[in-house]
Amino acid sequence: MGVPAFFLMDVLLDRNIPTGYTGRMALTVLYQGILVSGFNFMLNLWLLRRYQPSSVAPFYLTTPLFGVVLSWWLLGEPVTGYLVAGAILVAAGIGLAALPTLGDRAARSR
User: Fold this and answer.
1) Among residues 65, 63, 74, which one has the least CA distance to residue 40?
2) pTM of the model
3) What is the pLDDT of residues 28-84, one digit of tens each?
4) For the chain, how are helix, strand and coil distributed in percent, rounded to 5?
5) Phi, psi at residue 62, to the nearest 5°?
6) Is 18 left (phi over 0), alpha (psi -120 to 50) or beta?
7) What pLDDT does residue 53 have?
8) Burial profile 73-98: b = 16 or more Cβ within 10 angstroms, e = fewer
9) CA distances from 37 to 30, 49, 81, 91 (A)
């Protein structure tokens, strides 16, 4: 559903941005929209059937980190200071999300 919606938004809203629609571009959008999103959706459902959402959530948060590493490794894209700082902030956020909350601590102390 996202691919047609974003295509329509592009046609209606992004008229000032020059875009050349090519076969290669269409294949990349289809790949991203069907294979990547579809695979991720199926994997998410499989994981959520077997594990608690709270135990799976930290892995979902690592997606930006893997994106940065894979774009550097596979595509040779530069890793800038901003990307490193962002990766550190994402990792810190994952750490904070994994910490037990005050409510959890109170429940364990009972």
Assistant:
1) 63
2) 0.51
3) 878 887 877 888 888 888 988 999 887 787 777 788 888 888 888 988 989 999 989
4) 80, 0, 20
5) -80, -5
6) beta
7) 84
8) eeeeeeeeeebeeebeebeeebeeee
9) 10, 18, 29, 24
Q: Which residues touch 30 (CB under 8 Å, ≥6 apart)?
A: 3
Domain boundaries along the sequence of the chain: 1-50, 52-110
Query: CB–CB of 30/39 below 8 Å?
Result: no
For 27, the token pair is: 């294949």
pLDDT tens-digit series, residues 3-15: 788 888 877 887 7
